[in-house]
What does this fold into?
Amino acid sequence: MNQPVTYVGLDLGTFKTSVASSNGKRFVIPSVVGWPKDRVARALLGRDLVFGEEALKHQSALNVIRPFHRGALKYVDGADVGIRPEDVAKHKEAALLLVQHVVSDLELPAGRPIYGIIGAPSRATVFNKQVIINAARRTLDAVMVVADPFNIANGMNQLSNSMVIDIGAGTIDICPVCGTYPKDEDQITLPVGGDLIDDELHRLIKQSEPYADLSLNQARQIKEKFGFVRDDDEPAIATLQVDGKPTQVDVSKQLNAACRSIVPGITEALLELVSKFDRDFQKLLFNNIVLGGGGSQLKGLDQQIEQALQKDGQAKVTQVHDPVFAGANGALKMAMSMPANYWQQIVAQAGNKKQSNTQRARVSLSRAA
It folds into this structure.
C-alpha cells in the first residue's frame, strides 16, 4: 500500500524563510545558518549548527552565513554580491542545511513521502533553480521550483488578469498572471529589495548624524518598525547612541527617502511589462496589481505605486493579507493540487538512491543537537 504523502510549500527568502505543510503546521525563521567559531563557542551553544533567531542572537560566537544574501544562489552570481568564489560551496551547504532544518521542524510522520514546491525569483536561471533543487533533494522526495509571484497569485486565487509584485529582501519580482504559467520573458526580476532600503537608510542617517553609532541591522529594525512612503505618517523616532549617549533622533525624512527608493524601479518595470499587452488587457492588469512579500508591509506603498501610475490611467494596488506566508501558502496549495502521477514522474527522474526522509531528518537533528 502506498504511503500517504505530506506536502510542503517553501519560500526561501533572502532574509526570512517561511514554510507551510499539509499537516497544518507553518512557521517562519530568519534565513541564517551559524557554525561555532571555536570550542568555547561550541561548549556554550551545545551544538554544531545554529539556525534562525538563535544564530542572530549568538552571531558574535558564530561564523554566520545568509545563503541567499542579496539574492545569491537564487538569482544573482555570488561574486555580484561580494561572495568569494571559494565561499560559494559553503553558501550552498548552508542552503541545504536550512532546508533540512525547517522540514525537520515540521515534525512530519516517519517514513511518509514528502513532496514540495519552492519559490524562486521570476527570472532565476536554470543554474540558480538547480542550486535550489539540489539543496532540497536530500530532504524532499520530489521537489519543484515555481516563480514566487505565481505562488502568491495562486494562494490568493488571482490566477487570471493580475499583475503580482513580490518585494523581498534581495529581489523584487514582477509578473503578469493570465490563467497560464508565465513565460520567462513575461516576467522581470529587479536585483534590489529590502536590503537596498536598509543600505540607503543606514547611509542617510549616518550622513545626517555622523556621530551616531548605527549598524546595518539597527537600520533594518528601524525600517521594519516604522517603514513608510506616504507624506503624512507619524514621526519615526529612533533611539540611537550619539557620542556614547542614548539619544532620540527623528529619522522620518531619511526613512521616507530610503523606502521610496524602490518605487521608480517598480513602476518602470510595471509599465514595461504591461506595454506588451493590448490596450484593453492593459486596463485589466492595471486594475488588479497585487503587492506581496515582506516589503509590501511598508505603509502607504500601495497608494504610492497607484499615484506613480496615474498618468498612464487608473490603477488599483492591493496588498496581500498575509505577506509573511503568502508565497509558502501558494506553493503548498499548488503542491497539493498537482496530480499524483506528475509527482511520481518527478520521483522517478530524481532516482531512488537517496536516504529515507526519516534517516535524513535524524542526520540533520543529530548534527544540530
